[in-house]
Design a protein that fits this description.
The chain has 80 residues and is mainly beta. It has no helices and seven strands. Strand 2 and strand 3 form a beta hairpin.
């Protein structure tokens, strides 16, 4: 599982942001959208290295490269 929050540069939560985690090896992507608290969760993530990106109209896209998910781990990314 990959969970986190999407915020702007001032730290304000961004609601409705598109979040994508792409497996670096297989190029298979999982998609999610932040909820009313700016939180996203991507379930059923297989262990691998991921590139995680977030975007929303009016904001610059942000990417976190090389996020590693291991077995029985919950990866938390709290800022973009």
């Amino acid at each position: 599982m990959i969970v986190g929050h999407v915020t702007d540069v001032a730290g304000a939560l961004i609601l409705g942001a598109d979040v994508t985690a792409t497996n670096v090896d297989t190029h298979i992507s999982l998609h999610g959208v932040t909820d009313k608290t700016g939180t996203y969760d991507l379930l059923y993530v297989t262990p691998a290295n991921y590139e995680i990106s977030a975007s929303h109209a009016g904001f610059a896209a942000a990417t976190t490269p090389n996020a590693t998910v291991t077995i029985d781990q919950q990866l938390r990314l709290c800022r973009f």
